[in-house]
Amino acid sequence: MPKYTGGCHCKAVRYEVMADLAKTMTCNCSHCEAKGFILTFVPAGDFTLLSGEDSLTEYRFHTKKIAHLFCKVCGVQSFGRGTDQADSETVMINVRCLQGVDLSTLESGKFDGKNM
Fold first, then answer.
1. Within 13 A of 33's CA, how many CA atoms are on the CB side?
2. DSSP designation for 81
3. 4 pairs with which residues across the strands?
4. How far is 116 from 99, CA to CA, in rounded Å?
5. Which of 18, 15, 30, 92 is nearest to 61 (CA)?
6. How far is CA 11 from CA 6, 55, 112, in A?
7. Please, which pLDDT band fits residue 92 given cuts at 50, 70 and 90?
8. CA-to-CA distance for 87 and 110, rounded, in angstroms?
9. What is the pLDDT of residues 6-61, one digit of tens each?
10. Cβ neighbours of residue 43 under 8 Å, at least 6 residues apart?
11. Cα 5 to Cα 67: distance, rounded to the nearest angstrom
12. Does the pLDDT of residue 114 top 90, yes or no?
């Protein structure tokens, strides 16, 4: 599985992640749709925060199960933390924040978060 480097706009938050970008999705919930996320989800063990823990702040809404983390400096949400259906720790990656990814090559599935 490929390794990517990502983070926020001002580079205060930086991370590495092992991710399969053949499995991306877009969600139509009010939050994801407004921000234009392209998402992939990885096990927490495949994610390493390199810098910026002290620059992160959190937003939770609806069921409050996902910690939507964003940079206090530039406001970019490059990743979030939560659990999957098996209650395993998971990291949600905003693929738009990964370096060197040609977004035009991605085929994202759709998730109907609006009607959950």
1. 9
2. E
3. 17
4. 32
5. 30
6. 9, 10, 31
7. very high
8. 22
9. 999 999 999 999 999 998 988 877 877 888 889 999 999 999 999 999 999 998 87
10. 88, 89, 90, 91
11. 20
12. no
